[in-house]
Structures
1.
Amino acid sequence: MFKSSSLATFIGLSSILIWASLVAVVKLISESLTPISAIALIYSFSALCILVLNGLPRFQQMSKVYVWGCGTLFVSYEILFLLSIALSHNHDQVLIIAMINYLWPPLTIVFSILAKQLNYRWPVILGFFLSVFGLLLVVNPDILDLAQLMHILQQNPIAYFFAFLGALLWPCYSVLTKKYAQGQNAVPLFFMVTALALWGIHFVVNEPFIVPQFKMWLVIAVTGGFVGIAYSNWNQSLQFGNIKLLILATYFIPVLSSLMSMLILDTRPQMSFWIGTLLVTLGAIICWKSTSEMPSE
């Protein structure tokens, strides 16, 4: 548990930086191995890292809604998001999947307002739609051409659907964690279940297993460790940090993730990408200025 709200907020911001690089790194690892086994290996190391840092949580003291409800949302989101990356056909689709997934920051604002965790003024509606419009512009530069949008989505409908469903589940997890966690942290359990579920999917689909080389083992271990640390910190930051500032920072994940993916995956976005990121940033600032945390009871 973090004693300082400022420290909890800072730690949460570091999690956002780790997430921003996650999509591209996971894609590179999955290209070197079989996709599902690659993400299962990453999350196995993540679960191990969290267990070493936090130990097993005391489930008897935790809210059942938190353990079962938030746990189900967490595991479902991780599996859907990771599978959407694994199912991508090329690096351009990875960027689209990332943008669809990163609808969750503006949705978190909406869900937090509906859950009465944030006060708001009417400009937040403008900020929300500007952010969504910017994200859509990144996905489809000819944003008014619905036929082109459908053509893009039909190239990999399952992966895009998984990413979109994940974008709905993560805000639910964030809001419910804020309400029901009560200072507890079950993320070690959530990661263990996620890793086991991924291995289960790997065996069910009868995917071959490629033994990683030594350098790849190092990459997997480091990636898994950072992912585990990021999620553990985020869970604590949601409870003790400045949720308004953290939500603002999440709006910049699409920008950071796209920039890192552009460098790591060697992709070159069009001018519409930069226009879209500008709209996302503008929408984020408007939402941030138009909301405030509810007073503690």
Note: The first helix runs from residue 5 to 32.
2.
Amino acid sequence: MAMFDSAQTHIDDLADFVVASPTSYHAADQIAVRLRQAGFEQVDERASYESVTGRRFVVRDGAVIAWVAPEELAPKAGFRIVGTHTDSPSFKVKPGALLRSAGWVELGVEIYGGPLINSWLDRDLGVAGRIVTRDGETHLVRTGPIARIPQLAIHLDRGANDGLKLDKQAHTQPILAVDLKQPLIEHLASLIGVKGEDVAFHDLFVFDTQRPGVIGVEREFLASGRLDNLACTHAALTAMESVESTGRDVAVFAAFDHEEVGSATPSGAAGPILQDALERIAAGYGRCTDHGD
């Protein structure tokens, strides 16, 4: 792994990574930034690979495949792969997201993955994700704390302490405002310097804005959201940053997206992204990828 001056430095680095990664898109962007700083070169999946050797990576939506490959492969060389995922349990913003109920404006959301719903109550929530404008450009966006899923006061729900049951549709829509003067999409567009009418598509999520903290009398615990699975992603990333030589094999870091919803997407572990990368690496060495070679 990459060398840190102390355990606290490593914890601070993990906390910064979590804060910078409210969604899988942001996590992939942070991974790409750090890989470039570690001397990796990004290659474009849409183009031919001029070379597969050295330190390289590809980004596909919220997923990243990085590798360190020797100039020449030994006869029985293979791939040494560590896999993680960049997405975490959350709430996904629906199209036509704004609702009105009981005199306030709510954000229409759908459960993403398997969150512990009650743990999201009474938290300062933001909205983050990816926006695609009509010119085809993609933009990452995130707000500060703008929403909350409130819990009823005890005198309005006397049985709450005997067993709280939350309906995924009726009880999880975050409150945004009493009277929203600006549509949410226009607000998000303004954060990235475009007009609301220029937004063609969005993939947005609700996230907990609270920063991770070190707690406990002996300060041995890290309290944080999104540790599933950013903790493993961060560990694998810091290890990959420090890899100088793999000997005869190709070291591969695979950070997949959509593990929370089954992985069967173009950027998920059950999709083609890893196979695509491995086949192109093998082809770059002139190796056949048929079984047995």
Note: The mean pLDDT is 92.
